[in-house]
């Protein structure tokens, strides 16, 4: 097995149908609903360089793509899929990292979010710095929530006026990261630098 993960370009658009099939078959196996994705939509993401694709030689073994909502103020990393024969080897983690880095590069000021019931996604996103939040902190873009229509729990979401459901909301807020980093710098780094600065040994 020699898997390589690429940032997608139009050269990979030929895999769009296969990506949809893989997502569909996995959803069937799990017995869950899925957000509907057409091969045209997936190809659009690939052509726009807003996807990552994992290949073992010519074989498609993993995929994820970027969606933007609320005028690019929110980004979701969607459609994460790993071929059943390639699971539990750390491949999803690598794909997640790559699509996360790509999202940060393309949309540095956007909040990145996901909703999931899956432990694997919760674990991976938490490692990347996502925090659990209520749905009130996520996009209110109808386009995103329309994606839930294929889920078997959609009636629960509707009943709760789109405010809560069985999924956990996870959010990466770059502004919070900066605040955390700057308060870390103020509280920890600055005092250390201050203490070290007046080095009398080297004073003439
Ligand atoms: C979920 C999925 C992407 C995981 O892919 P994978 O390559 O097997 O995941 P990894 O090997 O990188 O594992 C990442 C972490 O998730 C955990 N994990 C993986 N599958 C898991 C599962 N089914 N249940 C609980 N934890 C799981 C791993 O133990 C690992 O955690 P660790 O870092 O603490 O060891 C894959 O099973 C899949 O494609 N499932 C169908 C589609 C899907 O559910 N997509 C996500 C929602 S859109």
UniProtKB/TrEMBL annotation:
Keywords: Transferase. Residues 3-151 form the N-acetyltransferase domain. The keyword Transcription regulation does not apply. InterPro entries: Acyl_CoA_acyltransferase, GNAT_dom. It holds the Pfam family Acetyltransf_1. GO terms for molecular function: acyltransferase activity, transferring groups other than amino-acyl groups. This is Putative acetyltransferase domain. It comes from Petrimonas mucosa.
């Amino acid at each position: 097995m020699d898997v390589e993960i690429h940032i997608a370009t139009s050269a990979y658009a030929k895999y769009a149908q296969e990506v949809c099939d893989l997502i569909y078959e996995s959803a069937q196996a799990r017995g869950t609903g899925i957000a509907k994705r057409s091969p045209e939509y997936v190809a659009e993401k690939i052509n726009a360089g807003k996807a990552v694709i994992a290949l073992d030689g010519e074989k498609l073994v993993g995929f994820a793509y970027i969606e933007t909502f609320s005028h690019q103020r929110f980004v979701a990393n969607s459609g994460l899929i790993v071929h059943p024969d390639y699971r539990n080897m750390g491949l999803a983690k690598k794909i997640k990292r790559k699509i996360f880095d790509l999202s940060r590069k393309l949309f540095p000021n956007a909040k990145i979010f996901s909703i999931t019931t899956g432990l694997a996604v919760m674990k991976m996103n938490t490692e990347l710095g996502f925090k659990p939040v209520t749905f009130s902190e996520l996009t209110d873009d109808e386009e995103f929530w329309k994606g839930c229509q294929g889920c078997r729990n959609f009636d629960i979401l509707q009943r709760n006026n789109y405010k809560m459901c069985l999924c956990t909301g996870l959010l990466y807020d770059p502004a919070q990261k900066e605040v955390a980093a700057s308060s870390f710098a103020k509280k920890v780094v600055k005092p250390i630098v201050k203490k070290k600065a007046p080095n009398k040994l080297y004073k003439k």
